[in-house]
Amino acid sequence: MDELVEISEFKSSPELRARLFEYGIRKTFDAGAVILGEHAHIRSIPIVIRGSIRVIRTEPDGREILLYYIRAGESCIMSFLGGIHNETSKVRAEVEEEAEILFLPVSKVTLFIREYPQWLDYIFRLYHKRFEELLEVINAIAFKKVDERLLALLRKKSELSDSMVILGTHEQLANELGTARVVVSRLLKQLEDAGKVKLGRNKILLK
């Protein structure tokens, strides 16, 4: 129960924190596991205790784009909104690195909103953060070149894992950027020639 104590809203309300763990279900997932699929009914809200999750939007033609990451102590605002309004999910949530997640039933989400102002503060803070991150995604797509977006993505992955070595394939990076694998492979080779990365088999060393 001490895992979420550093979250400001939960630190100020030990009772809220206790009830989260009382009603929530803890599960551990390996990297790559899908915890929420697009068009799935939202029965519970994930709160990440350890690890990280990437949230992806898929277009009808199969193209994908990375929207944001959910880190330890955070949750998915899209799940909050969809669950409260009884809507199906519009995104896919995949585990970036091994994660431990607390799943809170949707019925308790609305109950806690009425009983704990700290819970509402937590939701609003997440909403504000995700809104800013989505603005960054729009700005990057509209105004930045793909090589700039690729390097920014590698740096974000490095920050999440606290490692200069990024594991994954060129195909995975391409999917997250919403571009083609051949484009990512070409740009990675250019970054390697520029001395910014070193390429290996299914891994990239960020210099």
SSE topology:
Blueprint: H1 8-11, H2 14-23, E1 25-29, E2 34-36, E3 44-58, E4 64-70, H3 77-84, E5 92-105, H4 106-115, H5 117-143, H6 146-161, E6 165-167, H7 170-177, H8 181-193, E7 197-200, E8 203-206
Antiparallel strand pairs: 1-5, 2-5, 3-4, 3-5, 6-8, 7-8
Helix pairs in contact: 4-5, 6-8, 7-8
Keyword list:
Jelly Rolls, Arc Repressor Mutant, subunit A, 3-stranded antiparallel sheet, alpha+beta, 8 helices, 207 residues, 5-stranded antiparallel sheet
Please tell me about this protein's structure:
With 207 residues, the protein is of the alpha+beta class. The chain has two domains: 2-141, Jelly Rolls, CATH 2.60.120.10; 145-206, Winged helix-like DNA-binding domain superfamily/Winged helix DNA-binding domain (Arc Repressor Mutant, subunit A). The chain is built from eight helices and eight strands. The chain has helices spanning 8-11, 14-23, 77-84, 106-115, 117-143, 146-161, 170-177, 181-193, and strands spanning 25-29, 34-36, 44-58, 64-70, 92-105, 165-167, 197-200, 203-206. Strands 1, 2, 3, 4 and 5 form a five-stranded antiparallel beta sheet that branches. The chain has a three-stranded antiparallel beta sheet with strand order 6-8-7. The N and C termini lie far apart (38 Å).
Backbone structural class: alpha+beta
Total count of strands: 8
Total DSSP helices: 8
- Please state the second-level CATH architecture of the largest domain: Sandwich
SSE succession: HHEEEEHEHHHEHHEE
- Largest beta-sheet details: 5 strands, antiparallel
The H-level CATH homologous superfamily of the largest domain, spelled out, is: Jelly Rolls
Q: What fraction strand?
A: 25-35%
